[in-house]
Amino acid sequence: MSNRYSNSVSRRIVCGIYILVLCCFASHSTRAQVTTVDEQKLPMTIRNITVSQDNPYTDHISMEGDATDKDIMVKFVFDEAANQLTVTLISHRMIFVFREDVRYKPLIKGRTIRPDQLPYVVAFDPTDQFKISKLFKSTVPKPRKQYVFHRWIDYEGLQPAPQEYSMVNDFISQTFDIQKKGNSVIVKLRDIMLMSDISKHLNKRKYEIGFGRDLFTEYHVNIQRNPCFGMDEDIASAQAALDGIRKSFTSLKKKFGSGIVTSQESLTVFEELQETLMKQYPLKDAQSPCPDLQQALETYNMYTDSIAKMECKVVDENAGKGMMGEGINDRMLLSKARQIDSSVARWLLSNDPVERRDIISNVEDIIKKTNEDITSQGIYTKEQREALAVFREAERYFKNNCLRQ
Q1: How far apart are CA 339 and CA 398, in angstroms?
Q2: Does the chain have fewer CB atoms within 10 Å around its N or its C terminus?
Q3: Rounded to whole angstroms, how far apart are CA atoms 52 and 318?
Q4: Measured at the alpha carbon of residue 373, what is the angle toward residues 369 and 375, in degrees to the nearest 5?
Q5: Which has the closest alpha carbon to 303: 256, 241, 233, 395?
Q6: Distance separating alpha carbons of residues 360 and 366, to the nearest angstrom
């Protein structure tokens, strides 16, 4: 009987010890399950955004469901001249953030926040009191003393500019220098807390953090830079060169546009002038990331090529005489000029596309045939040169009105 009783007691003791061990293990296991957000591996929100000098980006984040008084705005502003990106947090309430990762203890004792326990310098009035609400404290995972608040912002491709931090903030702003003038950077937002002024007396300020959240949001920021930024002088220089070569080409074309001269001396003048212009306006490298600069350089090079391709030849005064023995008939040139002017007038008054095409075709035939006659018969007299000038003017009038629309 005593043996049975002894065995029963022994079994009970063993079972009690076993249960006690299980409880201790369960308690230890429960504590081990208290994890930070990082350890929970919650999915991070990733947003792809684009900013430029003239187009900042603003994001709206709801901190708690439909409670709009707890919403915050995140604004990204790019300053191209300074090569900086500024991130700003704005809310209806005051905002509090940590500049570095901070452990719950010794910063918070009970519900009192002790700013002098922060691992960095922060501006505050020593007479002010700071605390966390009971609700906020209840949301901090246990064991609280081991919990670590995340610094509010992380980044890649950026270098933070010196920034003062305060306990009381109407908004939070951080400016970054963009490393290597990059076009792509990353900004991560973490713990953001909202603070209220609960002071009952004006001479004794009390502030309370009543709500906080790990935003766990990552912004992939695409920075659109102006390809012409800082190139004002280069663009002005290219435009000045373009204006110069355009005037020189127009003058050369006016004097030798027909491609015919009547003497070797005139040919020598053309060749010397052409050579001078080629030296004065050499080809330029037209490769530029700035569209305005590249267009000016390409147009400049077109004029350079046109000058290089111009040709002139001497027509013997005794060769190729016209039917009257003295070059092309000046009256014929004037007649052709009048025909062109008359055709342009008809073209301007017509609304029929078919009729307009026929007029253009007829005028082009007149110009082609007349130019062939000029080349074969030559220009020798003052009257012929004056008539040719009238014809060229009619030709330009036709091209300016009928071929540019």
Answers
A1: 11
A2: N
A3: 71
A4: 115
A5: 241
A6: 10
Query: CB–CB of 314/264 below 8 Å?
Result: yes
Closest CA to 378 of 340, 342, 324, 299: 324
Q: In which element (H, E) is residue 395 found?
A: helix 382-402
* Strand, coil or helix: 100: coil
For 66, which DSSP code?
A: T
Place of tokens 């947090």: 89
Instruction: Report yes or no: 45 and 61 within 8 Å, Cβ to Cβ.
Output: no
Q: What is the pLDDT along the chain (405 residues), one digit of tens a residue?
A: 444 444 444 555 444 444 444 444 333 333 322 333 344 456 889 999 999 999 999 999 988 776 667 889 999 999 999 999 999 999 989 999 999 999 999 999 999 999 999 999 999 999 999 999 999 999 999 999 899 999 999 999 999 999 888 999 999 999 999 999 999 999 999 999 999 999 988 788 999 999 999 999 999 999 999 999 989 999 999 999 999 999 999 999 888 888 888 888 888 889 999 999 999 999 998 888 999 999 999 999 999 999 998 988 887 655 444 444 568 888 899 989 999 998 888 888 888 888 888 889 899 999 999 998 888 888 888 888 889 999 999 999 998 888 876
Taken in order 354, 356, 359, 360, is the CA torsion positive or negative? negative
237/374 Cα distance (integer angstroms): 41
Q: Do 53 and 226 contact (CB within 8 A), yes or no?
A: yes
Distance of alpha carbon 106 from alpha carbon 108, whole angstroms: 6
Q: Which residues contact 90 (CB under 8 A, 6 or more apart)?
A: 72, 73, 75, 171
Q: How far apart are CA 405 and CA 399, in angstroms?
A: 10
Instruction: Dihedral sign for Cα 238, 240, 245, 250, please.
Output: positive
Compute the C-alpha angle 244/247/248, nearest 5°: 85
